[in-house]
Design a protein that fits this description.
The chain contains one helix and nine strands. It has about 190 residues and is mostly beta strands. It has a nine-stranded mixed sheet with strand order 1-2-3-4-7-8-9-6-5.
Amino acid sequence: GLFAQGNLMMMDNKLIISSGVRFDLMNYKILETTFFNNKERKADNQVFSPSIGAKYRITNNLAIRASVSKGYSPANIYSIAGYTEQADYYKAKHVGIIQGNPDLKNMESTTSEIGFILTDRKERIRFEMAYFSTVYKNNAIEKMTFPTGIKLTATGDTIDSYTSYVNAKQSMINGMETSLSARLSENKNYI
């Protein structure tokens, strides 16, 4: 991937605006495999992930910050093309089938964050607090189904369940994060 970021400092460096962009190009090829029950497939993923943020220093010891960014995570290759017959340890000759979904989409996310930074006069102690909200699209989740009637594997085991992966429409995570750090040395070059 390629990544670029720039900072714009204004108002005697009280306001800093940061903007970044990341471009990823990923190619993969899944080969047809006899026991995995999947067809040959190629995919090219081109992803553009921008971000923008701002930090405003209200006083020498207090700053507020906010940012918005887009993210991306490729679907796990096992979730796309994997195949496993998982034995049931309580019933002999019974299995659960775990099989990938070749139509699985990659996960995308958008994160918004707002918070503040507080330091002491000598900047030896730093406290940060932020609220964040991340919205996920196409997050891969497991989906289990059960066969109707008796189904057998190629080796004659009874199939009790099928598990595969599907994309969730949307999910969200909200929360607060905090950080407290202290510089133990008077020398600003050391923490």
